[in-house]
Design brief:
Elements lengths: L1 H40 L3 H17 L1 H11 L1 H21 L3 H29 L5 H18 L2 H10 L1 H22 L22 H9 L2 H33 L3 H20 L1 H7 L3 H22 L8 H14 L3 H8 L6 H30 L4 E2 L2 E2 L3 H24 L9
Antiparallel strand pairs: 1-2
Length: 422
């Protein structure tokens, strides 16, 4: 019985992670097809930013509702419905020639894909022992970022071969298959599969309003929120939208070559996810880890923007990107921090709250960077797409440096490492 249980919980987690892989592919696909979209639809930098941000706004604002639904209805139902809607939105995006429909489709994708990550963390909380939470969170992030890697150079090659519409349609077909896998494989609690509970269910009589009040009135929740907002928002904005156009415009390289550099950035994120659990076990203080990695992350943006003026020698770019990605993703240790500050019955709600941060961060930072780029644009167009110069990107990327610095200051002065028993 125990062996069967052990195997089944990994099958559930793996199925959920397969869906999370698609979430990341869709999240970062815009960076690869940005030039095609800008040329085909005559989009400005701000419009392109807003298109990318539609996903992040919807994803962000759905996090707390999804957390509530995960606690109330269970991950199985909400992920199945979410993936179904995301699949329809993907097909709608792929076949439409209307700017308005494409914006709506992107918004719908963000709202529906928002069901996946919070539900995975809910599954981990219920099916696995507490001491596995940080490790499995890291492994989940690793799987997602493999999707981010697939959405860089491999997707760029596919788009070059068959075009962006056929490429996204193919992703939609795989999403459709996952709908059935989620419904028939995932179970919310061990007893739903005739297994014994590892962790007891939370008290269903607790009111959501009470849990929400506990979370939003806790100042430490907001400190964690703002740090995640700044660091992970920067990662998502750069690798998910502006990284590839920046490399293409400044270094005058092809989309595939630029995607290879972003692949290295994403590989750094993936490696950071893999080592998240071991790093936490090696160092006794999670707070100290956060301070160090945010300090390094901020320093790298300062070096890139202020010292190299956004144009370091080409052999340094992969090194800078890898370390940025590796250090930046370790900020997810704050998800563990937030989880330990929350009662088990509100784990979905707490996770939804903190997971709101990176996506609203990415959406806001996308728009801010796009606004600054458009403000300094000299009028150059190629194939209908706006081309920005290195000075434009230097000014735009100062946004990333400012928010990274904010995260560093917060980690030094205000961040506390707390346990649930505190």
């Amino acid at each position: 019985m125990q062996e069967t249980y052990f195997k089944y919980r990994w099958i559930i987690w793996g199925t959920m992670c397969s869906a999370f892989l698609i979430v990341f592919i869709q999240r970062y696909s815009i960076a690869v097809i940005a030039t095609d979209l800008a040329g085909e639809l005559n989009l400005t930098g701000v419009q392109l930013s807003n298109l990318s941000s539609m996903y992040f706004y919807a994803y962000a604002f759905m996090q707390i509702p999804v957390g509530i639904m995960a606690d109330k209805y269970g991950p199985r139902k909400i992920t199945t419905v979410g993936m179904s809607i995301a699949t329809l939105a993907t097909f709608l995006f792929s076949f439409s020639n209307s700017v308005y429909v494409i914006f709506f489709s992107r918004f719908l994708m963000g709202a529906s894909f928002a069901t996946i990550f919070v539900s995975i963390l809910k599954i981990i909380s219920v099916w696995f022992p507490p001491n596995r939470f940080s490790t499995l969170t890291g492994w989940t992030s690793l799987v997602g970022n493999v999707g981010g890697m697939l959405a860089s150079a491999p997707l760029a090659l596919l788009v070059t071969l068959v075009g962006w519409r056929v490429s996204l349609t193919s992703i939609g077909v795989f999403s459709f298959l996952l709908v059935f896998m989620l419904w028939f494989i995932v179970r919310d609690y061990p007893e739903d599969s005739n297994q014994e509970l590892v962790i007891p269910k939370g008290n269903s009589d607790n009111k959501i309003s009470h849990g929400l009040k506990l979370i939003i009135t806790n100042p430490q929740m907001w400190v964690n929120f703002l740090i995640v907002f700044s660091v992970m928002g920067t990662i998502a904005s750069f690798s998910g939208l502006w990284g590839i156009p920046y490399l293409m415009h400044v270094y005058q390289i092809s989309r595939s070559s630029a995607a290879n550099y972003i692949l290295i950035f994403t590989f750094g994120v993936t490696m950071g996810s893999l080592f998240m659990g071991p790093i936490e076990r090696i160092f006794s203080s999670r707070k100290r880890i956060i301070q160090v990695i945010v300090g390094i992350f901020t320093m790298l943006w300062a070096i890139l923007i202020l010292i190299f003026r956004c144009m370091p020698v080409s052999w340094l770019v992969p090194l800078i990107f890898f370390v940025m990605g590796f250090t930046g993703i370790l900020i997810m240790l704050l998800f563990v921090n937030v989880k330990e500050m929350s009662p088990l019955q509100y784990s979905g709600l707490a996770t939804g709250f903190i997971n709101f941060a990176p996506f609203i961060g990415a959406a806001i930072l996308n728009t801010m960077v796009g606004f600054i780029l458009d403000l300094n644009w000299d009028g150059l167009l190629v194939g209908g797409a706006r081309i920005y110069n290195v000075a434009d990107y230097q000014k735009g990327f100062l946004i990333y440096l400012c928010f990274s610095s904010l995260a560093f200051i917060l980690s030094l002065i205000f961040l506390r490492e707390r346990k649930a028993k505190d």
